[in-house]
Amino acid sequence: MQFFQTSSDISTPEMLANVIANTSIARYKDLPKELRIDWLKAQIYTLCYILHYQRPAPIDTTVDATFADQMIMDDSGISALKQVEMQEAFRRGIAGEYDKFYGITAQSLVLFLKGYRTSAKRQQALAILYNQEQQRVADEKLKENRLLYELKLHGFVNPWGKKEKKGVTAEESAAHREKVRRQAEEILTNTKDHETEK
Question: Do residues 105 and 64 make contact, with C-beta atoms less than 8 angstroms apart?
Fold first, then answer.
C-alpha cells in the first residue's frame, strides 16, 4: 500500500518543509502527462479500495484521471505539489478533513488538493522554509560584510564597492566657480561677435 507508506514522509511540518525544498523530488507538473494520468488512476483505485467502493470501470477511471489532470495543471499552485503531498491530501480528504465529499470524482480530488494547500501543516511548513531563506540571506550578507571588513583591514580596496566622496576645499570650489564664470563670459562674447557679423 504505497498510499500509506509515503504519507509518513511528511507527518510533521518540518518533514514536509524538507520534502517541499527537495529539488530531487519532482513536482506533479514536471512529470510527463502519461505518467501523471496513470498515477492518478492508481490513486483513484486506491481511494475506492480504502472506502470499500466498487472498483470503477477502467474507462470511468481514465476519464476522471484525465479531467482531474487538466484541472490540476490549470492551477499553478496545485500542480506544483509533490506526489507525496497529493497523496496526503487525498488521504485526509476521504477522512473528511476538507469538508464532505460525494464520491471519488475529479472534482473531489481537486477540492482535496485545494484544502490541503491551505491546511495548517502546509502553512507551517512554508513558514519554516521562509524563515530558513531569510536566515540564509542574513548569513550571506553577514559573510559578505565580514569579508569586506577583513579586506579593508588588510588595505585592500573593493573596486566595485561604493566610492568614497572626496572632500572639496573652499579654494577648489572658488576656482571652479571662477572657471565657469569665465566660460560663460566667453560664450556670451562669441555669441555677440557672431550676431554683429550678420
Answer: yes
For residue range 81-121, list pLDDT tens digits in order.
999 999 999 999 999 998 888 899 999 999 999 999 999 99
- In 3D space, the residue among 90, 92, 82, 68 whose CA is nearest the CA of residue 125 turns out to be 82
* pTM score: 0.69
Give the residue extent of every domain in the chain. 2-124
6-45 pLDDT per residue, tens: 455 798 999 999 999 999 999 999 999 999 999 999 999 9
Q: How far, in Å, are 86, 173, 186, 196 from residue 193 at the CA level?
A: 85, 31, 11, 5
If one counts every other C-beta atom within 10 angstroms of the C-beta of residue 111, the result is 17
Instruction: Pick the closest to residue 111 from 124, 102, 120 (CA basis).
Output: 102
Query: Cell 577583513 sits at which residue?
Result: 150
State the Cα–Cα distance between residues 78 and 29, nearest whole angstrom: 9
